[in-house]
Amino acid sequence: MNLATNLYHAGAEVFLLTMVCVILIADLFVAGRGKMFTYMMVQLTLLGCSFITVATHTDGVAIVFSNMYVDDLMSDVLKLLAYLAVSMMLVYSRTYLLTRGLFSGEFMSLALFALLGMMVMISASHFLTLYLGLELLSLSLYAMVALQRDSAVATEAAMKYFILGALASGLLLYGMSMIYGATGSLEIYKISDAIEQGVYNKQLLVFGLVFVVSGLAFKLGAVPFHMWVPDVYHGAPTPMTLLIGSAPKLAAFAFVMRILVEALQPLAIQWSSMLAIMAILSIAIGNLSAIAQTNIKRMFAYSTIAHMGYLLLGVLSGTIEGYSSAMFYAVTYVLMTLGGFGMIMLMSREGFEADNLSDYKGLNQRSPWLAFMMLLLMFSMAGVPPTVGFYAKFSVLQAVVQTGHFALAIIAVLFSLVGAFFYLRVVKLMYFDTPESHEPIQYQADTSLLITFNGLGVLFLGILPGTLMSICAVSVQQSLLLH
Amino acid sequence: MSMQSTYLMVPAAPLIGAIAAGLFGKVLGRVWSHRITILMVAVAFGLSVSIFNDVMAGHTFNGSVYTWMTTGDTRFEVGFLIDRLTVMMMLVVTFVSLMVHIYTIGYMQEDPGYQRFFSYISLFTFSMLMLVMSNNFMQLFFGWEAVGLVSYLLIGFWFTRPTAIYANLKAFLVNRVGDFGFLLGIGLVLMVFGTLDYASVFAAAGQHAADMAPIPGISANLITAICILLFIGAMGKSAQFPLHVWLPDSMEGPTPISALIHAATMVTAGIFMVARMSPLYEMSEAALSFVMVIGAITALFMGFLGIVQHDIKRVVAYSTLSQLGYMTVALGASAYSVAVFHLMTHAFFKALLFLAAGSVIIGMHHDQDMRNMGGLKKYMPITWITSLIGSLALIGTPFFSGFYSKDSIIEAVGLSHLPVAGVVHVAVLIGVFVTAFYSFRMYFLVFHGEERFGKAHDDHHAHDAHGHDDHAAHADAHDAHDGDHDDEEVSHDHHHGLAPGQKPHESPWVVTLPLVLLAIPSVAIGFIAIEPMLFGHYFTDAIFISEHHEALHEMHEEFHGAVAMGLHAFTSLPFWLALAGVLTSWFFYMKRPDIPEAIKQRFSCIHNMLEEKYFFDRFNDWFFASGARGASRFLWRFGDVRLIDGLVVNGSAWLVGRVSGVVRHVQSGYIYHYAFAMITGVFVLLTIRNWFE
Predict the structure, then answer these.
(1) With left for phi above 0 and alpha for psi between -120 and 50, is residue B334 left, alpha or beta?
(2) Contacting residues for A327 by C-beta, under 8 A, at least 6 apart
(3) Is B677 part of the contact surface with chain A (CB cutoff 8 Å)?
């Protein structure tokens, strides 16, 4: 493969990196109100990335950069969704950041660096590129959490995130090194070949698998590697929480797919039992702890933990249907999370974070439309038909039942019932309680339009999930075809 | 336009009308609402005629147009089966519906719910067409429920009248019973055959002829079980004993829908369904005998009830019940084509009788009590002559349409070899006398004799308008009673009617035109259609009759043309029975009105039993209504409050709350706790790995 072909398949990454550098420099020359210029440039960059990703799409799987990088349908789909998520995050956060003086070039370029990290992760077919992407993403996120330097909670959250993240990276690297030792390769496809041909050290390999799974679980926020999630979600400024909670989960899903499914498929018995334990614990602890929360960001944090449990259920079933339902779950989760945190930012204003549950009392009287959108999002998170959350849970459970894990399915359903409580509590607060404040909600036209798009999208995808589901199924199938 | 899109347009046109009048009725206004709905139904009728010609040229169709969903190997589809049976039903439905649409302009002209009414009847037309055009059980069930829904909405159309609400609730609940059986039947079909498509079920039925039904605890033949369950659905929809109780009460609805839904079309859905399922019913003599007995009971005993009614619409309603019984009897005798033939003639003359009754009601300013009528002949000539035609057709006067269909039924029963056929034959013969008696009782009381209107209600204000606002307001003050409310109903209607000295007048042309148009087929359709439908090859492909049930075949041998049949009738028993009925009623109600009074006194216990409709309503209220309420109260007190709310709901909520309180303490906020948890996690996972070594 020559350089041009290599660069062609990584076109979006190259473009993004170039643009981040341009924006970093250009931002130095605009001051104050001129930040809008930077913002527009960032949005245009994202648009350009989408264009390039679509334009450079090729049928089939292309492996480039000496087997370090893969360009397939799954990576293209996940990347496009990541652009969308980052772009929506920026729209939702603009006003919030402006009123707090955080609307800076650093924020936006860090977000783009994080995105670049995700893209590298999504397309990685080599442990080194995977790790490179992961670290680029993580470091950008650590910095973003700490961006609000004068806030004690934010710096504390950043510190916790950084230290625990470093620990998790250590576990992951350790696991990767053991797998390398066992199979003699860092390339995903070579690893799977080696295992299939039986040229590996089993003891060492499975040992490495445990550490890799632990590192993955940290990224996803699955129990017992979840402790950072509530503190970071709570402590970080809401836009950063939104960024951490949304697009990186897509990258983490790709990460799981590349390592566990593509590289270590022959060890499926081992990893699926590990994932099963983590999934059930995540679903149980996530849902149970969320009940006791009074802060909506913390509540979402625990809800994320539970959602990741459901996602793992799809992966552990080990079938094409399972993987595609997990991908579907990841996509819908991102959409719902964007809406949920977007709503928090919509409700907040200067000196008011709107992150307590009581702030949502009587929202229906203050703004029926926003309340209705929030209702759709909550219904979707709880898995009430006809929203997309129902279909996502349904397809995951279907995959689990098809592989005969009835106990897992039953436990998952029971805990999703528990989970329905705290989601519906928000609905109850909005519709049946009297508002504590009557201050009008100030929001921009673009954010209210976006939340409408977001809420109705959740409903629309729930009624017509077929297209998205088949996209997920085709991309998963294609990326597995190589074996 | 291809034939397939023509098929699609037939139900779609009234649906468009229903949506237009229902959702945009306010914008369109009254005139445009009725114009659009009538136009759309007329389109459906016109297309049905063209499909009829196409089918007669030999082009039948069976195929799906849309797949709704697929679960496993079962596909749920929307599809059409267009054959001669279907197309005949389509013609009847769209024609009667068109007549009723036109009639409604006159009947409902002062009603505030004008557009809503048009929307409902168009929606009904759509649903009924979906039902008859279906090629699978699922769509049949959809149509079945949809017509039930519209019927429910229309019985309660005047929703401020407590009696109307009582009646529509009753219709709804009784139909639930029937639909439960129907749904079980469909479920059994799906379970055994694995498909809901008519053609595949019929094709596979032969292999299951000797199978036992997979119902634990009951050893019944599979096909018999399916047929009886499906027929239970038909009993609800077609108001067969003992699920007939809702139909007389359904007369609370406006008269046009009584004609359309509760006489001509919807109530015949059960008959149509059984005829459509003829390949299944032909395999089970037990089911056929059951069908025949139920039909005979309905035909005879519901006829008796017609004798004691005072409300003009209720007389017609009981006559409908009785005629539906006749059709059911014909089904039991394997004379499906005769049943469907009677269905068609009945649709015309019964719609005519209902609309004529409605016209009388308009003339009487919404007084429905026959005791306040009399001598209307000279004030309402068109209504009079058309009513007379309808009544003559109903009692089976030779050469009228009802004669050909009803006599054929009686003959078919006589020739049937089922063990119960003998008794049933006697019952349907007595039914002929009863039918003639009550029909002409009504006719004489309304159109002849002394003019009794404008007398009995001098204490009420005279009012020219007969809108339903004041009607409703009056009814509000009027408690709904659980039990028999006929008498109150009548007395409650007293405040309508003519003021002293006021004379009834003929209805406007929009009312009389449908009467005239319906009178034509009431007279002629039997004469024209009997030969092709019963003895020709009209239904050869649509209806299956096993060679063991050759009643129809034997009839064919004795049939020498419609004229001969009419002439022969003058020497046959049914004709003389009918004549006797007419003469008796003339003597009782015209010559010697004291005789019925005397009989009433003399046999008060029988009279009472008839007035109380064999105590069915009382029994249902006592046993089912209060019984169910008692059981519900127990379940609520014990099951719901104690077990579910107390133990399960609050108990588990308490447990979850406690656990979540404990779990949150794990989140201490100390980073070394977090790190410790992670390391523990790694160790746990390592241990698990060893389990799988």
Answers:
(1) left
(2) A74, A253, A257, A314, A472, A475, A476
(3) yes
| pLDDT value at residue B484 | 41
Least reliable range by pLDDT among A111-125, B68-82, B567-581, B637-651: B68-82
Mean pLDDT of B392-410: 86
Paired tokens of A250: 């897509």
Question: What number is the average pLDDT over the span A286-301?
Answer: 90
Q: What single-letter DSSP state applies at residue B63?
A: E
Residue A22, number of CB atoms within 10 A of its CB: 13
- Cβ distance A214 to B682 less than 8 Å, yes or no, reads yes
Interatomic CA distance for residues B178 and B243, integer angstroms: 8
Q: Whole-structure pTM over 0.80, yes or no? A: no
Q: Do A273 and B688 touch (CB under 8 A)?
A: yes
- Counts of helices then strands in chain A (DSSP H, E): 21, 2
Residues ≥6 apart with Cβ < 8 Å to B329: B292, B295, B296, B299, B409, B413, B424, B428
Instruction: Give A-chain residues touching B657 at CB under 8 angstroms.
Output: 291-292
A287 is written with which tokens?
């849902």
What are residue B234's DSSP bridge partners? none
Contact criterion met (CB below 8 Å) for B7 and B133: yes
How would you class B330 by CB atoms within 10 Å of its CB: exposed for 0-12, middle for 13-18, buried for 19 or more?
buried
Rounded to the nearest angstrom, the minimum Cα separation between A421 and chain B is 9
Whether B656 and A288 lie within 8 Å, measured CB to CB:
yes
State residue A187 phi and psi, 5-degree precision: -85, 135
Alpha helices in B218-311 (DSSP H): 222-237, 246-249, 255-259, 269-276, 278-281, 285-308
Q: Which of B671, B672, B683, B687 to mutate to test the interface with A (most CBs of A within 10 A)?
A: B671
Q: Closest chain B residue to A234 measured between Cα atoms? A: B669
Its domain, for residue A251, covers 3-481
- Contact A402/B at CB under 8 A: no
pLDDT tops 60 at residue B477: no
Establish if A153 touches chain B: CB-CB under 8 angstroms: no
Count Cα atoms within 13 angstroms, Cβ side, for A306: 33
- DSSP H or E run through B105: helix B84-107
Q: Closest Cα of chain B to A60: distance in Å?
A: 30
Question: Contact A378/A427 with Cβ under 8 angstroms?
Answer: yes
Q: Does B661 touch chain A (CB under 8 A)?
A: yes
Q: How confident is the model at residue B202 (pLDDT cuts 50, 70, 90)?
A: confident
Query: What ipTM was assigned to the predicted interfaces of this complex?
Result: 0.85
**Token pair of B683 as six digits:** 């160790």
> How far apart are the CA of A290 and the nearest CA of chain B, in angstroms?
8
What is the SS3 assignment for B70?
strand
User: Which of B416-420, B456-460, B602-606 shows the highest mean pLDDT?
Assistant: B416-420
Q: Which residues contact B117 (CB under 8 A, 6 or more apart)?
A: B104, B108, B111, B154, B157, B254, B256
A292 touches chain B (CB under 8 A): yes
Tokens coding A238:
């809401």
Name the minimum distance, in Å, from the CA of B248 to any CA of chain A: 41
Question: What are A1-24's pLDDT values in tens digits?
Answer: 688 888 888 999 999 999 999 999
Residues in B touching A290 (Cβ below 8 Å): 660
The yes-or-no verdict on residue A480 having pLDDT over 90 is no
The answer to whether B434 and B304 are in contact (CB under 8 A) is yes
The pLDDT score that the predictor gives to residue B177 is 85
Q: What is the pLDDT of residue B472?
A: 41
Q: Provide the domain count of chain A.
A: 1
Burial class for B412, CB neighbours closer than 10 Å (0-12, 13-18, 19+): buried
The answer, yes or no, to whether the previous bond of A224 is cis (omega within 30 of 0) is yes
Percent of chain A with pLDDT over 90: 61
